[in-house]
Amino acid sequence: MRALPAPLIYIQGLFRPALLRPDVRVPSIKNVDWPGLRKAGYNAVVVDKDNCVTVPHSDALFAPYTNAWAKLRETFPGRVLMVSNSAGSSKDRGGIGAEALSMSLQVPVLAHRQPKPACAADIVAYFAGRLGPPKLTRDKVPETHTEVQEDAAEQELVDKWRWSAEEGPLIGKPLQGTLEERMVAAQYRVPASGSEGPATDAAMKIQSTAEIQSKGKTRKREEAKPETQDEPLRIVVVGDRQFTDVLLARRLEKKGVEASAILTTDLPYPNDVRLLRKLENYLAPGDTAQVDRLTSFVHLDPPEPPSLKPTGLERLNPIAQIRSAWAEWTQDTPKVELDPRSGTWKPKPLFVAAVRGLGVGLQVLSIYARRGGAWAWVHIRRGAKKGWESIKIKAGEMRTEYRARKEAAREAAHVEAATQTDAATPASSGPKVTTTKAALAGEEGGLQSAQ
């Protein structure tokens, strides 16, 4: 069955975001316990290039990962494969980038026609041995250089011995074979005085240069044969992209291989395809169920201690400057022990201890002063509330009394005004009133008599 092309696999990841979830997230390859993974049964590692072990567009190993990379190669000898969508892909014309990367990182680089994650079949074929043993440039160059040196030395030896082997007398029994065979046999030949025994015949055994070289190559192949060839294939895929590296692990599982995806989060060049990384995290947040099993192989670095130097606007604050200088000056000062023979009874530790003790005392005083102030403030507010309520009651009583007094004064003024009006009435008005009254009385008498 023909493998799916990469665009279709990407679309499959969009419709099934669970395929994009890594098994575990780590800051970098420094935080992975590679010997622990090897003991757990993993026997092969597939590593991405850009932002995982190198900076983009560079073949040099990222300097902080040097020790971790050496540990990885030491733990999985001959079983580390570099798979990149730049070096070794169809973009790498002539494989020049793959050769340069292989020489720099000292691991084989997979040459694949389809980009990740569509090259899972090629990875399985490589670890199964169907692509042949890895041919590294770092191995070819020394071997070629050694062969040139051996050819030059052999030619020099032929020139020196040509006269003795062909034109001059050769001591001992004449040898058969080519010039090279006779030269090799002459080096191991020990002629005995008198007769030749079995030891001499064994020493005179002729071995051609071709046989020696073929035996050496066979021995090298046997030594280079990985110990994990007979084990079931269990691959760790390490990369920084979910759409390529994590999907590659899932494609390997489709091929019947047990694979685990490790996603690195600390990027040497974080600005690379930032939008795609945000999309990946949005589509597939979290990890798979294997995270509980693989977390034991992750070692997180301790957080860096906070900087003692002030930053931002604190640099303009003299108190912050004093605190920073004091913290830096007392950073490595030992604590004073009670025993004077401990060696800590020195001017600087004693001075630092005295200042710290004074600071602790002032801190305690400030704490209790703050508590006392809070207690006093509560009681002051409570007393002020009671006093304000009593003042309001007293003010109400005074207002009521004032209103009553004002009403009484108003009534008294009204009575007095009426009295003064009656007293000021003129005397001439009296007879008129009397006459009127008398007339009224006469009218009433006339009415009664008429009745």
TrEMBL record:
<dbReference type="GO" id="GO:0008962">
    <property type="term" value="F:phosphatidylglycerophosphatase activity"/>
</dbReference>
<feature type="region of interest" description="Disordered">
    <location>
        <begin position="408"/>
        <end position="451"/>
    </location>
</feature>
<feature type="region of interest" description="Disordered">
    <location>
        <begin position="210"/>
        <end position="229"/>
    </location>
</feature>
<dbReference type="Pfam" id="PF09419">
    <property type="entry name" value="PGP_phosphatase"/>
</dbReference>
<protein>
    <recommendedName>
        <fullName>HAD-superfamily phosphatase</fullName>
    </recommendedName>
</protein>
<feature type="compositionally biased region" description="Polar residues">
    <location>
        <begin position="419"/>
        <end position="437"/>
    </location>
</feature>
<feature type="compositionally biased region" description="Basic and acidic residues">
    <location>
        <begin position="220"/>
        <end position="229"/>
    </location>
</feature>
<dbReference type="InterPro" id="IPR027706">
    <property type="entry name" value="PGP_Pase"/>
</dbReference>
